UniProtKB/TrEMBL annotation:
Residues 1-372 form the Major facilitator superfamily (MFS) profile domain. This is Sugar transport protein 3. The keyword Phosphoprotein does not apply. GO terms for cellular component: membrane. It comes from Striga hermonthica. Belongs to the major facilitator superfamily. Sugar transporter (TC 2.A.1.1) family. Keywords: Membrane, Sugar transport, Symport, Transmembrane, Transmembrane helix, Transport. Its main location: membrane. PANTHER family: SOLUTE CARRIER FAMILY 2, FACILITATED GLUCOSE TRANSPORTER (PTHR23500), SUGAR TRANSPORT PROTEIN 3 (PTHR23500:SF30). It is a multi-pass membrane protein. PROSITE patterns: MFS (PS50850), SUGAR_TRANSPORT_1 (PS00216), SUGAR_TRANSPORT_2 (PS00217).
Amino acid sequence: MEYGRKRSIICGGIAFFSGAAIGGAAENLYTLMMGRLLLGVGVGFANQAVPLYLSEMAPSKYRGAFNFGFQCFLSIGSTGAFLLNYVTSKISGDLGWRISLATAVFPAFVLILGTLFLPETPNSLIQRGHDTEDARKLLQKIRGTDDVEAELDDLLSATYAAQQIKTPFGKILKRRYRPYLVMAVAIPFFQQMTGIAVISFYAPILFQTIGSDESGSLMSSLITSSLGIVSTVLSSLLVDRVGRRVIFVLGGVLMFATQMGIGGIMAEKLGDHGVLSPAYNAAIVVLICAYVTAFGFSWGPLGWLVTSEIFPLEIRSTGQSITVAVSFLFSFVIGQMFLAILCHLKSGTFFFFGGWVVFMTGFVFFLLPETKNVPIEKMDRIWRDHWFWRRYMSDDDDLEWMEDNIEEPFLKSIK
């Protein structure tokens, strides 16, 4: 990032503020669409910069908990939005939806104001040419110790190598970066294929489908969203102790079980045109709550944590940009297709997403190395030791890549 993580977050906050203000005051469809577009720009900036900021500022042993705060507050915001929509849905006329849209200016303002008082990350300071002493003082401040030379040396080495790259955007396609590119695409894709977008976008419609009235469906959505917060907090206490892979796999098993339960009940008791009894309706709600809890415990926060910590500095911004783009692309695709899928597959919708959960859980188990307690600037060593990915990280590949991409003076200095 040429302008740093901090400025990117501020740009996201400005886009949020502008989009909310324009949307709340919209007088026609085009103005409303412009507001929504700006909100999307804000989401892109925030989801690209905030996880990177947290990963670069956090000590390695607490990096998971720091990043889980990102998902936790996303869940809090989602719950607040559900609650606000529940209240404003009872307001007649167009005032209700205007309040819903315009209220977003307040958290956007807090984001902008708060970020102004945050320091830039040491990684970004060095990468953008600031004095090394500034980075050392910042490291000493945020680590709470004067002994930061080892970490500073790692940052300087990674930054110097990154600055010598001649082809900054095409480098992630090189063979030695294949593991990172695969994860940058696969993890956000799998995160969306858990089916969480179904719950996030269409929970009220889904609850009405199984027999709840409009008020009850909105309240059920609020409950499930609240459970996402609780599960994320619980997971944040465990992620730096038990590791990422264990939580990924455990969450996958729980999501698969709940999706099979939901699909089974709907197939057996709902049929094509039936209505569930109150008992089965309650069972579906409980299973959906369990599913949201499992997602909030695992794939929700881990999908952002792992992708923000695995990339080496020279491709970190590029890799995170790909992650965000893939995430929102498939979120959009699934959101647009869900109603058609639900109409055609009916209860099979949950079997469809359950099948993907089995596949992605196996992918993580076999192909994702554990990143717990690994310093962010030494992350490449876990790929070199991995049974599958090490074939892409050989010394010969490194030398060939460096000869193609790094300036001659730097090459001579390391030979």
